[in-house]
Design a protein that fits this description.
- The strands form 2 sheets. Strands 2-3-1-6 form a 4-stranded antiparallel sheet. Strands 4-5 form a two-stranded antiparallel sheet.
- A hairpin with a 5-residue loop joins strand 2 and strand 3.
- Helix 12 runs antiparallel to helix 13.
- The protein is built from 14 helices and 6 strands.
- It is mainly alpha-helical.
- This is Probable exopolysaccharide transport protein.
């Protein structure tokens, strides 16, 4: 039976908690101490039945731990939320009732969210995004056979190089070129003055142009994004702006600035190499000059003259040897002729010997032969004592004497030629012998000379190699070998990328407002329930 000192609600709560404990479905709410309420002074007595009798009293057994909990003092949370212990008894009907009671809040949140979405769709700054596809080939164009930069055929290294160039695409240097080319520092889309900037300028004056460029740099960096397609060298550049045409112009300007930055980077690297080579060339030039000077000084000190790569002494010795051979041949010819003439004179064959050759001798021989024919015919005609025959024979004797005299003169000339050739041969032999000793001396000196010449040639070869390489790299600075190709240029977008379409925003705003309204209605209903202003639906 109910005790008269317990409120009816408390007994019902104890009964329900007892039923939950017996069912084994306990919860944390069971640990919340029950609130002991004293009956009010004006509280009516228990209701009586219609027949005037009191209602039957039912005895409900109370567990020992609940009885001890009843004896404890109530907590502040339980005082503030008197029905906190009834959270587990909330059902679907309660939720539906809360939603029904908070219908006006749901409608209000829905209307406000849709209105906010519409206002945002109308007033939000649109964004137009364009995309540009580039192929960043890590292998540069092979313009020269031995370029300054080497290529690595390994794929991992190539991907790292592409990633490095991808970082350059969105680097500050590239963006700075775009800002200067398109004058973005003066574009209100990228540089928007605020009250905070005005206060900063008032407190600490700074360079306005630098601040504008920095603001434009920050704004542009937020609008540019680049990524590489997986397992490829294709890079996708993403750029957005408030105007479609400006987005396309920005994308094209970034690509051009990217190519210019790569070319400038390669040119600067080649320029540093060329500068180092040019600094080294001065020292190499001095080394070559000193080596060649040592060669010429040694050649002058030792009298080593060369023509067409051969020493003059060797050439002179060769020529003297040739002259000695010619002199020997002439000497032999003169000696042979002289001996033949001497033998012919001794044998009295001056008239018939062919060795005696001269114009006078030929004339005398002709006269002698004609006279000999006349004498023969006269002997047959006149006889041996005819005066004409005697005169002819006397003339023949005269011709024979003249021929002998001419032969002696020719023999003397031959003797003079023989002596002359012998002296010339002796002189040539003497010169050849002297020149041979000079040749030996020059050959020994030439050994040292060749060593000096080799040193000079090696230094000259190194100098010429560095000089040609420096000139080649200097010209290489003017050639763009970067292999960057645009395979898909930016096209005007069909629609804005942000904010979404108005219909989508309205639908999203409606759903969000509905969720907020439902949450607010449920929260308000739960608040009233915990405060004891409402009870659990039956």
């Amino acid at each position: 039976m109910y005790r008269r000192s317990e409120p009816e609600g408390l007994g019902l709560r104890l009964e329900r908690r007892h039923q939950r404990l017996r069912s084994g479905g306990g919860s944390l709410l069971d640990l919340v101490p029950a609130v002991t309420e004293e009956p009010a002074a004006n509280e009516e007595a228990p209701a009586e039945a219609e027949d005037g009798t009191s209602a039957p009293v039912v005895d409900i057994p109370v567990p020992a731990h609940q009885a001890r909990a009843l004896e404890k003092q109530p907590s502040p949370v339980a005082d503030f939320f008197p029905q906190l212990h009834l959270l587990g008894s909330i059902g679907v009907n309660d939720l539906i009732g809360w939603l029904r009671n908070g219908a006006r809040w749901i409608v209000l949140a829905l209307v406000l969210s849709v209105a906010a979405a519409f206002a945002y769709a109308v007033t939000a700054t649109p964004r137009y995004t364009v995309y540009t596809d580039l192929v960043v080939d890590p292998s540069n164009l092979n313009v020269v056979s031995d370029d300054v930069f080497t290529t690595n055929p390994q794929r991992d290294a190539q991907l790292l190089e592409v990633e490095s160039k991808l970082r350059i695409l969105t680097s500050r240097n590239v963006l700075q070129r775009v800002i200067g080319e398109m004058r973005l520092a003066d574009d209100p889309e990228f540089v928007r003055p605020t009250l905070l900037d005005w206060l900063k300028a008032l407190i600490a004056p700074r360079d306005a142009e630098a601040d504008k460029e920095l603001a434009a740099m920050r704004a542009l960096s937020e609008r540019v994004e680049a990524r590489r397609e997986e397992r490829s060298f294709v890079v996708i550049l993403k750029v957005w702006s408030e105007e479609p045409a400006k987005a396309i112009a920005l994308s094209d300007a970034i690509v051009e600035a990217f190519e210019a930055e790569l070319f400038q980077s390669a040119a600067e690297s080649a320029g540093r190499v060329a500068q180092n080579l040019n600094e080294r060339l001065d020292e190499l030039r001095r080394n070559v000059t000193e080596a060649e000077k040592r060669v010429e000084d040694f050649r002058r000190d030792n009298g080593l003259q060369s023509t067409n790569g051969e020493l003059v002494s060797n050439q002179l010795s060769s020529e003297l040897n040739t002259q000695v051979l010619d002199g020997q041949q002439r000497f032999i010819q003169a000696e042979t002729r002289y001996r033949q003439m001497s033998a012919a004179v001794a044998e009295g064959q001056t008239a018939s010997a062919s060795v005696f050759e001269s114009a006078n001798m030929t004339n005398l021989r002709q006269q002698y032969n004609a006279l000999q024919q006349q004498i023969g015919s006269m002997q047959l005609t006149y006889g041996e004592r005819h005066p004409r025959l005697v005169a002819a024979r006397s003339e023949r004797t005269t011709l024979e004497a003249a021929m002998k005299d001419e032969a002696r003169r020719i023999l003397e000339r031959a003797k003079a030629d023989f002596d002359r050739e012998q002296k010339a041969l002796d002189a040539l032999r003497g010169k050849a012998d002297d020149e041979k000793s000079n040749v030996f001396t020059d050959n020994q000196a030439q050994v040292q000379l060749r060593d000096l010449e080799r040193d000079a040639r090696s230094k000259a070869a190194i100098y010429e190699t560095h000089l040609a390489r420096a000139q080649q790299i200097t010209e290489r600075q003017q050639i763009d070998t970067t292999n960057i190709r645009v395979i898909s240029r930016a096209l005007p977008p069909n629609a804005r990328s942000w904010p979404p379409r108005t219909l989508i925003l309205l639908i999203g705003g409606g759903l969000l407002g509905l969720a907020i309204g439902i949450a607010a209605a449920l929260a308000l209903g739960l608040w009233k329930f915990l405060r004891g202003k409402t009870h659990v639906a039956a």
